[in-house]
Each structure stands twice: as C-alpha cells, then as structure tokens.
Amino acid sequence: MSLTEQTSEQSYQDWLNQLKTQIRSSQQRAILAVNQELVLLYWQIGQNILQRQDQQGWGAKVIDRLSKDLSTEFPEIKGFSTRNLKYMRKFAEAWQDKQIVQQAVALLPWGHNLVLLDKFSHNETRLWYAQKAIEHGWSRNVLVHQIESGLLERTGQAVNNFSQTLPEIHSDLATQTFKDPYIFDFLSLGEAYHERELETALTQHIMAFLLELGTGFAFVGKQRHIEVGGDDFYIDLLFYHLQLRCYVVIELKTGDFKPEHIGQLNFYVTAVDRQLKTEHDTPTIGLLLCKSRNEVVVEYALNQNPQPIGVAVYQLEKMLNELELDK
C-alpha cells in the first residue's frame, strides 16, 4: 500500500470512528428520551387513577379492570399489569410536582424509581438518592447497594479540619466526599489481621473499594515510595480525586485512633505536596481509616493542625441497625 493509500485509509478510519461516536451518542439520547417519556406516561396514568378514584369513589378493583383493558388494547406493552398500575398510582401520589418528575426522577429508569418507592417514605431522601444516581450513572443494583449501606447517613460524617485548612468551596466539597463509616463488606478477613493484609485485600478488590470510596477517586498505587532526606518511606494507598483535583493519601490502622497517627499522615501529605503536586492541583488531603476512634480525641488531634486531614472508621460488615434507613 502506497503512502497516499495509507493516508487515505487512515482518513477514512478517523471519519468512520467519528461517525460511530455520533451514532452511539444519538442512540443514547434516544434511549434516554424514550425512558423519560415512559416514566412521564406512567406518572400521568397514576395521576388519572388518583383523580378518578377520588372523584368517582372507585375502589381498588378498578385497577384490575384497567389492567385487563389496557393489556388487551396494547398487547405489545408489558407495563400494564395490576402490580405496575398500582406502582404508577403510588408514584403519582409520591410526586405531586410534575416539574420535579420532569427534571429529576423521569431521568431514571422505571426500575430505579420502584426501588426508591419501596425503600423510602419521604421524598427528600428519595430525591437525594435519585440525584446521586443520575449524577453518577448508577445501575439499579448499585443504587440498591448504596441505599442498603446507608450512604446518605454516612456522607460527610468523617471528622475533619477541612474548614480550617481549605478554601470554603473546596472544604465543603471535601467534607461531602468523605464518609463515616466506610463499609468493606466485600472483604473476607479473619478476626486478627494486619494493616498490610487489609491494604492488600482492598487493592485486590479495587473496583468494590473505589465504589465505596465514591465517584471521582482514581487509584494511583499502594505502598507508594517517597524519598525524603535520603530515607525511604511508603504511603499505604495513594489516590487522585478528579473533582477535588488533588491527591488523597489514605493510611490504614487496624486498631484505635491515636494522636500520633496524625503526625505520620501530616508527613506523607507534605511529601506528596512537595514531590507530586503540580501548580494545577489543589492541596493534598489525608484520610486516616481506623477500626475505632474517640471523636473528642480526634478533634483535639486535628485542632490547629496545618494539613487537611479526615478521620473515619471502617467496618467489615454492614451494621444496618446503626445505619437507620428512612423506612
């Protein structure tokens, strides 16, 4: 093949790839548009059922009759079962404001909305999870996992000094980025385990670990080597957060929090700031994960500390009785 032919072939392949991207993007928009129309249709049907039952005094049996009639008229549509019509009624009853439906929950698949209806009784909580699911593109299974792990109750709960060490806009985002507790129920560790075993287990399940950390975290490495004054040091886990635009140093402790842990983490944060951070990055944040902590001791340790540090505990099992879901 001549150089001219090679150039022509490369030009064609580039053009073809552009067209493929455009087609896939169009398909995705079409799917989203169809989904939104379907959810809005279900909401409207639910509103009609509510209005008719209120105005005509019709009981629950009218839903059975409506299911049969609609299924007969539209046999190709599978969404007119009695069960689904009852969900439409519940959906319309839960969301009275059409604007919220259009701008939020209609952007989620119907199955996601059923999860939110079944799991919660208050719209404020439903809307919080709906917005997170839209923002992060959660599948239905991921949404269920986040709900069952009590994400809302855990978000922003890590003890930290961000308001004293970071600009206001940055500190608010940083606070909402970190949780307490972190739940590592995807790990299988015995009663007695060492920090290195915990670190290895987390990196072996890195996708589950990243899901628990939350959107925006990119894994940089474990036991990341740094040299300071000719001495070697190793950071347990190093991440980069895309929204915060900063490195995040994570240190693991298998026991209780101790004030001296902050000194070690400060050292690592300073080293990353000086050796890895660029002019485009915001200040490095340290996160200490320990098995247990005394909040008063942590607050004392962080008081007037110069580096942005958060302290949270981790659990190897879900403690659903402690993570009170809005049932």
Describe the structure.
The chain has 327 residues and is an alpha/beta fold. Helices cover 55% and strands 16% of the residues. The chain is built from 14 helices and seven strands. It has helices spanning 3-56, 61-73, 82-94, 98-103, 110-119, 123-136, 140-148, 151-154, 162-165, 168-177, 195-204, 206-213, 260-275, 295-302; strands at residues 159-160, 182-183, 217-228, 231-241, 246-256, 285-292, 309-315. Strands 1, 2, 3, 4, 5, 6 and 7 form a seven-stranded mixed sheet that branches. Helix 1 (3-56) packs across helix 3 (82-94) and helix 5 packs parallel to helix 7 (140-148). It is globular and about 80 Å long.
H/E element string?
HHHHHHHHEHHEHHEEEHEHE
Q: Structural class from helices and strands?
A: alpha/beta
Portion of residues in beta strands equals: 15-25%
Number of strands: 7
Poorly predicted spans: 320-327
* Discrete helix count: 14
- Largest sheet at a glance? 7 strands, mixed
Q: What's the overall average pLDDT, rounded?
A: 88
Radius of gyration: 26 Å
- Helix proportion of residues, in percent? 40-55%
What is the distance, rounded to the nearest whole angstrom, between the alpha carbons of the first and last residues? 68 Å
* Spatial shape: globular
